[in-house]
């Protein structure tokens, strides 16, 4: 199926090959090549895998042909994500024909969902490793080297990889992701994640702060705290008996240095607390941006999705965010054509988008995933043309909302963290505002570099970008 959403926004980053920022690959005995698909959590996991492999004498390469070990970190969220991976695996078959010693491993959510079946279905796969089993990779590689098929898809109740220091892959040296928890206990009926990533568990807060401090000391200026549902972060410091909530954790990271920006993703409308919003308002370096997936604007559909909030509850949250964190950017995930969705339900989605005035959204049509609650309980009964038409309407509305939101920013001044050259020109910088909007502006010759903050006045905009000048 053609997924319009993925044309509009690249939430599902596809198949990016990584190599460490400053790697001395010659220092290693062997080379690995890794491609990651899906959500930010997967990209973050690949950095843990890279660290484990470095310790085993494997250096990263960007060149598939040079690799002794080729890894795909995969996503199962929609059928299309899995199809993309399967296609990529058949491309690897050709390379393996001329390089029989090369090992191919599948990591991540597809590994977890399909388990040993993957070895049978995709005959050339040698290693299958689920998201909680990356520590066993060295042993699995050894097994595979002797010609056996190697699988570990055990899920864990306590694995957080807290002590593993991720190797930053393809880094801009300015922004980085820190995984603060794993798994998910919400049983959204459409979602495969609870099955592929297991039970929710929070990582040691002190190790998170340490990782952020370490990044800051290396010149990084922004960290994004990552979890499927960050608001349910909960950790007890056994030494002091202190409990650390997400709001507290954010504060601990914000206090490292005022020049270190803090972002987070993803929030669940049912769990985001007033304490979180007040903490955001209190610290200038906690960015004013919340990704708050709505999924649908219809209370009836939300109930079928098991989201555990109503349309009114969600709208009240949006209102509260705008009151406590004025000017806060808000984005959403939206699913078109969930089981039994009527035109009226669809109109409710459009109207909640207008109400929330999202700056941006990730938009999808419903894709039934085997084993989920929805697959077991409800019929995927909305015809594909209707799903597509509704999605198209959602996309068009979001395009208008994004443009309106950007137009409201023309004339305003934003503090921007420079991330690097703009896509189009080395004569321009790009960076983000606190509200997570991309701003592009001409370089002026005054020794600025990525990682610096500048005040930029917005003069013009497109639907996707603000254009301005340093003041
Ligand atoms: N079909 C379509 N979209 C889905 N998402 C999750 N599961 C599905 C599915 N089965 C979307 C949700 C979620 C985002 C990460 O992906 O909007 O928030
Ligand atoms: Fe990430 Fe979900 Fe895809 Fe797994 S299924 S990679 S958790 S988006």
Automatic annotation (TrEMBL):
Reactions catalysed: N(6)-dimethylallyladenosine(37) in tRNA + (sulfur carrier)-SH + AH2 + 2 S-adenosyl-L-methionine = 2-methylsulfanyl-N(6)-dimethylallyladenosine(37) in tRNA + (sulfur carrier)-H + 5'-deoxyadenosine + L-methionine + A + S-adenosyl-L-homocysteine + 2 H(+)
Class in the EC hierarchy, top level: transferase
Predominant location category: cytoplasm
Pfam families associated with the record: Radical_SAM, TRAM, UPF0004
Cofactor: [4Fe-4S] cluster
The organism's place on the tree of life at top rank: Bacteria
Cofactor: how and how many bound: Binds 2 [4Fe-4S] clusters. One cluster is coordinated with 3 cysteines and an exchangeable S-adenosyl-L-methionine.
Domain TRAM: 407-471
GO MF terms held by the record: 4 iron, 4 sulfur cluster binding; metal ion binding; tRNA-2-methylthio-N(6)-dimethylallyladenosine(37) synthase activity
Coiled coil spans: none
GO CC term, one of those recorded: cytosol
Subunit text: Monomer.
Free-text function comment from the UniProt entry: Catalyzes the methylthiolation of N6-(dimethylallyl)adenosine (i(6)A), leading to the formation of 2-methylthio-N6-(dimethylallyl)adenosine (ms(2)i(6)A) at position 37 in tRNAs that read codons beginning with uridine.
Protein name, UniProt field: tRNA-2-methylthio-N(6)-dimethylallyladenosine synthase
Source organism of this protein record: Panacibacter microcysteis
Gene name tied to this protein: miaB
């Amino acid at each position: 199926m053609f997924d319009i959403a993925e044309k509009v926004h690249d939430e599902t980053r596809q198949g990016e090959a990584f190599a460490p920022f400053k790697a001395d690959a010659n220092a290693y005995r062997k080379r690995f090549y890794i491609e990651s698909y899906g959500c930010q959590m997967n990209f973050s996991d690949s950095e843990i895998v890279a660290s484990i492999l470095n310790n085993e004498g494997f250096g990263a390469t960007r060149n598939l042909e040079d690799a002794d070990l080729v890894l795909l970190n995969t996503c199962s969220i929609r059928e299309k994500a899995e199809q993309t991976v399967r296609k990529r695996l058949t491309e690897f078959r050709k390379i393996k024909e001329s390089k029989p010693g090369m090992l191919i491993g599948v990591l991540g959510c597809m590994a977890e969902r399909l388990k040993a079946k993957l070895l049978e279905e995709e005959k050339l796969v040698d290693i299958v490793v689920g998201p909680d089993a990356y520590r066993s990779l060295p042993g699995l590689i050894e097994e595979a080297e002797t010609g056996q098929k190697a699988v570990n898809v055990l899920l864990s109740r306590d694995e957080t990889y807290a002590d593993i220091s991720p190797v930053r892959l393809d880094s801009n040296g300015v922004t980085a992701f820190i995984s603060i928890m794993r798994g998910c206990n919400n049983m959204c009926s459409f979602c495969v994640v609870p099955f592929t990533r297991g039970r929710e568990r929070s990582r040691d807060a002190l190790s998170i702060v340490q990782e952020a401090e370490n990044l800051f000391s290396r010149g990084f200026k922004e960290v994004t705290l990552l979890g499927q549902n960050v608001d349910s972060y909960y950790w007890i410091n056994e030494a002091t008996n202190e409990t650390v909530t997400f709001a507290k954790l954010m504060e601990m990271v914000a206090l490292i240095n005022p020049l270190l920006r803090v972002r987070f993703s993803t929030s669940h409308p049912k769990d985001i607390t007033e304490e979180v919003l007040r903490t955001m308002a209190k610290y200038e370096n906690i960015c004013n941006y919340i990704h708050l997936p709505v999924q649908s604007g219809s209370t009836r559909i939300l109930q079928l999705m098991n989201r555990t909030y109503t349309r009114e509850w969600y709208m009240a949250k949006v209102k509260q965010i705008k009151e406590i964190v004025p000017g806060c950017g808000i984005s959403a995930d939206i699913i078109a054509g969930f089981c039994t969705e009527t035109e009226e339900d669809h109109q409710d989605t459009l109207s909640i988008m207008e109400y929330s005035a999202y700056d941006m959204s990730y938009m999808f049509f419903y894709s039934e995933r085997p084993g989920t609650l929805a697959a077991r309980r409800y019929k995927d009964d909305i015809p594909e043309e209707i799903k597509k038409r509704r999605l198209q309407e959602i996309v068009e509305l979001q395009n208008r909302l994004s443009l309106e939101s950007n137009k409201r920013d023309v004339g305003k001044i934003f503090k921007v963290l420079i991330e690097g050259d703009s896509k189009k020109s080395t004569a321009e910088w790009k960076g983000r505002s606190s509200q997570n909007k991309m701003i592009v502006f001409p370089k002026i010759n005054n020794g600025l570099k990525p990682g610096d903050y500048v005040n930029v006045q917005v003069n013009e905009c497109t639907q996707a970008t603000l254009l301005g000048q340093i003041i």
